[in-house]
Amino acid sequence: MPEFPEVHTVIETLKEFTLGKTVTSVDVLRAKNVEGNLNDLINCKIESFEQIGKFIIFHFSNKKILISHLRMEGKYFLRNKDEKYQKHDIASLTFSDKTSLVYNDVRKFGILKVSSEDKYMEEEPLSKVGPDPFKLKDPKYLLDHFKNKSIPIKTALLDQSIMSGLGNIYVDEVLFECRIHPETPAKTVNLCDCSHILEASREILTKAIEQGGSTIKSYHPKEGVSGNFQVSLKVYGKKDGTCVRCGHHLRKIFVGGRGTTYCPKCQRNPTIQEVIAITGPIGSGKSAVLNVFEKLGYECLDADVITHELYKDKKIQDGIRKIVPELVIKNGDIDRDYLRKYLLNNPNKKRRLEKYVHPLVSDVIINRIKKAKTKVAMEVPLLFESHLDDFADKIIYVDSSLENRKKRLEKRDKNYNETLLINKDYDLENKKKATHVIVNNDGVASLEENIKSTFCR
Ligand SMILES: [Zn+2]
After folding, report:
1. CA spacing 20 to 30 A to 359: which of 50, 67, 286, 449?
2. Range of 437's domain?
3. Spacing, Cα 266 to ligand 1 middle (Å)
4. Do 388 and 424 fall within a single domain?
5. What pLDDT sits at residue 441?
6. How confident is the model at residue 219 (pLDDT cuts 50, 70, 90)?
7. pLDDT in tens, 346-377
8. The domain that contains 81 carries what CATH number?
9. Same structural domain for residues 250 and 281?
10. From ligand 1's centre to the CA of 348, what distance in Å?
11. CA–CA separation, 381 vs 284, rounded Å?
12. 227 in a domain, yes or no?
């Protein structure tokens, strides 16, 4: 779908090939897409063009106006008057120089509307189009329009009745530039944010227009003018990429049904509580660390506990049975001893099972983080692999000697050697990604002291 800069480029091309021409006849091939009488334009000369949001406005002599919106796939073609019509042609204007401007629309969502100078701004659709970032001078306008809205800022910026010009692509780019999380409630942004949004919108659109402009010469209306330029985007469409600012991987979510890419580190969600993530190899004493945070009043989430809760869900058991057909259920719960042995001998199945279960666990954790009323501590052994580090403000890596780890496992788990073996693929490189390392070799009292002195200041 063409956005504001592409529409700008279409207008530049239309100017080049039709400005000053006089209409001698018109044809309507699909009346559904045309509002008003195109015959009103006969004997009128195209005097100028104007862009309002993503609308193209033709200003004719005799105070006549033609409003055009390309929607998904609308295109203009300049042809010779005698050329045959093609599939999906909607309407045409023929000029005195025997050329015709043909509007073609494969998806048929575009509109053409005839109006006049005295009323075109007062009637729909233009009466509902807000000013674009170039016409908007005062950021307070945005603040006033956002102040009562609980909807996400992304949705508010897509609302063309507030400000026109930003579509899905450029909203993501603007919010990234301003370090604002797309789900931030519109009413919580301040004047400084609004000023930043306005500036970034102008800058990004200008750059896109310039880049579009640099290829305009290769666009001739005979080939159809739709405008579809590659611009240097930093987040849009780059869900597998990394942040150009901080190097963190980008994340894709859906906001108001629209695909949205952002950097979880640069664009923190202000509606969620502070989150401390606890990770580290098996037996390092992560749970002891979590217990300390529980005492300190944190809401605690434990990925292992959540996994075991999910294992009791009948639907999830059925899902797991598709991977492990020999699954044993005891008293409504999965026999975990059996499952562990099975996975030890079937590493491929282990990978498939993880691929199925991990996203379910992540969803539960993300939902609980979003609903939390106090600060959150979460224990997630595979923190980075699950990308739950996206939500963490601080990351604690719990370290402990192998000897201590074995001792801890021995106490709670008769199969501790197998457990160590099945968890051997923990990536020790993860230690470098943590913001805090806690060495847990000296018992609970010392651990508690250590955590309090670091996190309760
Ligand atoms: Zn970043």
Report:
1. 286
2. 275-455
3. 4
4. yes
5. 87
6. very low
7. 889 999 999 999 999 999 999 999 999 999 99
8. 3.20.190.10
9. no
10. 34
11. 10
12. no
Q: How large is the average pLDDT for residues 239-268?
A: 94
What pLDDT score does 332 carry? Answer: 87
Annotated catalytic residues are: 2-3, 54, 258
pLDDT at 215 over 50: no
Asked if 112 and 163 sit in the same domain, the reply is no
Secondary structure (3-state) at 385: coil
Residues 164 and 31 in one domain: no
Average pLDDT over residues 132-152: 96
Going from the Cα of 406 to the center of ligand 1, the distance in angstroms, rounded, reads 38
Does 373 share its domain with 242?
A: no
What is the crossing angle of helices 314-321 and 347-371, to 10°?
150
pLDDT digits (tens, 9 = 90+) for 283-309: 889 999 999 999 999 999 999 999 999
User: What does the pLDDT read at residue 408?
Assistant: 84
Residue 172 resides in a domain: yes
Residues 313 and 245 in one domain: no
Q: From CA 302, how far away is CA 294, in angstroms rounded?
A: 11
| 65 in any annotated domain | yes
Same domain, 246 and 380: no
Nearby residues of 4 by Cβ (< 8 Å), 6 or more positions away: 51, 53, 54, 132, 164, 165, 166, 167, 170, 205, 208
Q: What is the reported pTM? A: 0.82
Q: Residue ranges of the alpha helices (H) in 63-137?
A: none
What's the CATH number where 185 sits? 1.10.8.50
In the predicted model, is pLDDT for residue 223 greater than 70? no
Output the six-digit token pair for 46. 């195209």
In the block, tokens 């991990």 appear at: 358
**305 φ, ψ (degrees, to nearest 5):** -65, -45
State the distance from the centre of ligand 1 to the C-alpha of 151, rounded, in angstroms: 24
Question: Are 298 and 379 a contacting pair, CB within 8 Å?
Answer: no
- CA dist 26 → 31, 105, 223, 224 (Å): 12, 17, 21, 19
